[in-house]
Amino acid sequence: MIPATVEQLLLVASVFWVLTANRPFFAAVLGGHSLTEVGTWGLLLATGVLLVAMHFAVLALLATRLTVKPLLALLIVTTVIASHFMSAYGVFLDPSMLRNVLRTDVLEARELLSPAVAVQLSLYALLPLLLLWRARIVVRPPLRACGVRLLALLLATVAMAGSLAVVYKPFSSLLRNHKEVRYLITPANYVWSLASVAATDARGAARPRQAIGLDAAAGSGRGKGDRPRFVVVVVGETARAANWGLNGYTRQTTPELARLDVINFSRVASCGTNTEVSLPCMFAPVGRRNYDAERINGSESLLHVLARAGVSVQWRDNQSGCKGVCDGLPSETVATINPPGFCDGGRCLDGGLLHGLDERLRRAHGSNLIVLHQLGNHGPSYFRRHPPAFARFQPECTNDDLSQCSPAEIVNAYDNALLYTDHVLASLIATLQARAGDVDSALIYVSDHGESLGESGLYLHGVPYAIAPAVQKEVPMLMWISDGFRRSAAIDSTCLQRRAAAPASHDHLFHTLLALLDVRTALYEADWDLLHGCASPQRAAS
Ligand SMILES: [Zn+2]
Fold it and tell me: What values do phi and psi take at 48, rounded to 5?
């Protein structure tokens, strides 16, 4: 028998898996890096340390003197099978794949378990299982065992933090481009996916969304003979307030908007630091001020409330969907509309969002809301977000891997993408303005979250809200309101300009849109309506 502590077994197993089962992951990390460079070896070493420390830490939370052997034996066998299928079929062991695997019946499984699997098992499982069987677990007094485990976890955490600091930049770039790559980390991938499937099943099938604003109705402020009202909300992507020309950024990234009569809100806080959090939150009655993800995602959105009051609503997407905000309501994607000259390989430029809008304005009647969900400054490939004519700040980063570019090149590409958003918004205003004689129109543009561009070594976004830097939480926002709309809703522009200099947040969107579209409901809170005090009182009252 070989004497070994639980921690020693876990460490040996973690190193073994990282070295034998993670070739596809290391290949993805290496992509584009040359093995002749010293930096590449540093990256490989740091990646290896990170994976070992991560696996060790998770196992150290689960394994005890009694469970360590069966736990490791099970993982040794399943990891061999898992990595065989990953290399043979190029599959990613994500939750949907695991769901497929769990639905496989015995016959299918027998066909899949080919002789190749037996060879792999004898190569990578037999010897480890034999060693595991021969190991004699060293017994420690309980208090000492706890102390050793805590110390081991602490060391693993330090190793994770240290290696993460080294790999953060190339990793954040890689994982944004190829999210699926994380499902190559074995055995963490299938264990995580299995847990995720189990958790989803436990929560039960998708429950219907809780209805909100059942009392919503058109306000009395509008009569039968009134002109159509057409409100456009442009949900921006990854635009940050710090680089917004209208906010006084040293570069003019909004030259076209600067010439128009827009109301720029210069101090706007986003609800989250990623699209998944921000999007549902901005269309909820209570967002960041009393944040509750479960309530927000389990309830209807502003769009459902407006539709209930007779507003014609439409979601038009040029990104990753409406995250439940438009469930069951009319929606379309730019890729399926496929306007000529905007799309390439399933990705479309934001200009495509405006396709056919003029026709809609011409036919508009009653109250209308259309939401345009931009691709905006979606990173890391900022240079892909604008047509060549907008590459004005040079040299710009034209590599999907940000670690291959200098900070100045990254900022140039980012600012060029903002120049294009400026152009799209100005074109949209021109379209609305051209029909302003017949249709009262308004535009609200607001970005979903900001972005880090290398400040304190951070890139992209998604840092947990509480610790996120300001650049990820401060977003540009503006309004444009046609003269006819201002008159019919008695909006005082000077008052609104004054309001725009004060702090605002995503929480204001819900209530401001209720007021703009003159929809009454008990959900309305005047304090969160940016027009409150700047529009006719009978409209602002709930
Ligand atoms: Zn986003």
Answer: -60, -45
